[in-house]
Amino acid sequence: MLRTAIKNTLQSFEKGLLLSQKPLGLYAIPGNRSFHAAGSSLAPRGGHDTAHEERPRILITGSLGQLGSGLARLFRMRYGKDNVFMSDIRKPTRDITSKGPYIFADVLDYKCLQKIIVTHRIDWIVHFSALLSAVAEANVALAMRVNIEGTHNVMELANQYGLRVFIPSTIGAFGPESPRNPTPNVTIQRPKTIYGVSKVHTELLGEYYNHKYGLDFRCLRFPGVLSSDTHPGGGTTDYAIQIFHDALKEGRYTCYLGPNTRLPMMHIDDCLRSVVEIMEREPESLPVRTYNVAGASFTPDELAAEIRKSIPHFEINYRPDHRQAIADSWPEVLDDSAARNDWGWRPEYNTKRMVTSMLNDLRPVYQQSHGIESDVMTKQQLTVAA
Ligand SMILES: NC(=O)c1ccc[n+]([C@@H]2O[C@H](COP(=O)([O-])OP(=O)(O)OC[C@H]3O[C@@H](n4cnc5c(N)ncnc54)[C@H](O)[C@@H]3O)[C@@H](O)[C@H]2O)c1
């Protein structure tokens, strides 16, 4: 560890990146300390602050996207609100800033990230900033910067300051040559999107830093994530959220994927719980650093049939677009047995429960306001994606 610290410090001096003159003993190695949250099970909603004694200080990049605010809420319940720093390049709402610290952080700005880590004594980074699949295909140059260069910055700083780092991967990290049903944890990965290429790069680089420097890198490959209170960011699985809005608002939905396109999905509660669970594991209890996690797989046709059990007049039409080719190269079913065996991963939502939860959450929104705001947001994002 000392040799790694010296080497990292010298490398950083070479790059002229260090603000401080003190080469050794400068960095605490919080990634190697144990942090504890009392209580073994998570309380995703309405829980209380269960943390005690030593609490990690956590930075979440890209936290104004679909996953960030929910994760901040969970972490704050466990470690205290002032220990969790949400960040993004977007302007936050008052609601966000009223709930805990929010700071500007552009992941392309190394010094800006470095200053945040030092000033706020960050121990863990959850790196969510990214351009998702459909948006990335439409902006390849920007996707390479945000998804690859941004990840380099985060990984290098995490290594330099001894942080624990979580960076999600995706089913998009697989390609048409990968076995699709089920897709194992370790298999051929030849993605055909820049999003997938950038995520394979993240997985390999994180594992390399872990192997070479002992970086405490942790990575989960998420399927499409279903959430009712945050908007999808322009991924190929977004249909599985929009369908609920349109079902409740219009009674019908036109799907950009064909009826039999089977993809893995998970409920956001399961997704966020998986992040907390893997982050709280001791480093030595994780024999590998990249794991598939999954909830349930379904097709648009099967999802529509499940929705029809609650909304019998619901109709679905199909008009596949460019996203069909992306979906056709992705897994149909993710094999998450490695995560189940190594650290006890268990999803709590099957397809039926996901549908019930989405309809129960969204029904009051459309009964009261006809969901004008959420519809506008999603259309903007889909315009960018197209
Ligand atoms: N949501 C899913 O279904 C899903 C599935 C698999 C993997 N993931 C991964 O999870 C992570 C979070 O996903 P999400 O759905 O919340 O994404 P999102 O698109 O909703 O949010 C990404 C955020 O990154 C921010 N961002 C963009 N450029 C930035 C920059 N230069 N600096 C800082 N922030 C920047 C954006 O403002 C946005 O708020 C991503 O890495 C994504 O690849 C998500």
Automatic annotation (TrEMBL):
Coiled coil: none annotated. It holds the Pfam family Epimerase. SUPFAM superfamilies: NAD(P)-binding Rossmann-fold domains. Signal peptide: none annotated. Residues 58-294 form the NAD-dependent epimerase/dehydratase domain. Belongs to the NAD(P)-dependent epimerase/dehydratase family. This is NAD-dependent epimerase/dehydratase domain-containing protein.
